[in-house]
Amino acid sequence: HSNNRRYYTETDVLWIDFIKRLKATGMPVKIIARYAGLRAEGDDTLLERKEMLIQHRQHLSNQIMELQEHMSKINDKISIYCQKIEKMNTISETHT
Q1: Cβ contacts of residue 45 below 8 Å, gap of 6+?
Q2: Is 27 exposed, middle or buried (0-12, 13-18, 19+ CB in 10 A)?
Q3: How far is 91 from 70, CA to CA, in rounded Å?
Q4: 49: Cβ–Cβ under 8 A, 6 or more apart, which residues?
Q5: How many CA atoms lie within 13 A of 36 on its CB side?
Q6: How do residues 65-93 score in pLDDT, each as one tens digit?
Q7: Which long-range contacts (CB under 8 A, 24 or more apart) does 18-24 make?
Q8: CB atoms within 10 A of CB 59
Q9: pLDDT for 58-68, tens place per residue?
Q10: How many CB atoms lie within 10 A of CB 26?
Q11: Which DSSP string corresponds to 22-71?
């Protein structure tokens, strides 16, 4: 390791990217640490790691549904505003 630089394998980079993705999608650091510990233990922990990811996927799915509901309500409000603005413009045009 010349020049005090670290060199990472592609596997290391993929692992770091996956950890970043778990964190970015809201997995608590404590759970990520548990997942990483299980990974370090090897393939005997595959089932447990898979279950952790299935739970996280369900959490994400719930979040997506909630966000879609919020988006729908916001879109409804924007539509109402568009209708009101259009009506105001129509009224002002007929009065000029």
Answers
A1: 38, 39
A2: buried
A3: 32
A4: 35, 38, 39
A5: 16
A6: 999 999 999 999 999 999 999 999 888 87
A7: 22/56
A8: 13
A9: 999 999 999 99
A10: 11
A11: HHHTT--HHHHHHHHHHHHH-GGGHHHHHHHHHHHHHHHHHHHHHHHHHH
- Placement of tokens 């005997």 in the chain: 44
Tokens read off for 26: 């809201």
- The two structure tokens encoding residue 32: 């990520």
Span 32-45, pLDDT tens digits: 999 999 999 999 99
Query: With helix as H, strand as E and coil as C, how does 3-21 read?
Result: HHCCCCCHHHHHHHHHHHH
